[in-house]
Design brief:
Elements lengths: L2 H12 L22 E4 L9 H5 L5 E7 L4 E7 L8 H5 L5 E4 L14 E4 L2 H14 L13
């Protein structure tokens, strides 16, 4: 690149407006096709766990409290999710969806990245059980010591 071409580019850019967006103060509209947040409808879920098997990131866990009465709690790890929507496509009962409403997930700690979906009393029961056992979260499957 010659000095003349460089000087021409520098002089042109001196008189242009900056292209920087003032993001937190001026927000643009979110595209409708954005896959930003996983939502779950526990009334439609049968507990088949196809969503868990097909999730490439391991971001979904289903805690079965009572399979006969369809009492499930879904633990969704936002920090692991790659937003591929494979779980939505795999769900036969249309209980999983991706929404574009919640897309700003910045936080200073990891606690807000674990979301529990389900009926309020089931989620509360699960969290109380985890607190009694003194663990961060209640595992739904026994861990293999090997």
């Amino acid at each position: 690149m010659t000095i003349g071409v460089m000087l021409r580019d520098v002089l042109k850019s001196l008189f242009k407006r900056p292209v920087t967006e003032l993001y937190p103060f001026e927000r643009k509209t979110v595209p409708l096709e954005l896959r930003a947040e996983l939502t779950w409808d526990p009334t439609k879920c049968s507990g088949c766990q196809l969503c868990i098997k097909d999730c490439p990131a391991g971001a979904i866990e289903l805690v079965v409290l009572d399979k006969v009465n369809k009492r499930f709690v879904m633990r969704y790890h936002r920090d692991r999710c790659v937003y591929c929507a494979q779980c939505v496509q795999s769900c036969r009962f249309n209980c999983l969806n991706m929404t574009n409403e919640q897309w700003e997930h910045a936080a200073l700690s990891k606690e807000p990245f674990v979301v529990h979906y389900g009926r309020d009393e089931d989620v509360q029961f699960l969290l109380e059980k985890a607190a009694k056992e003194g663990v961060e979260e209640c595992p739904d499957q026994p861990t293999d010591p090997n």
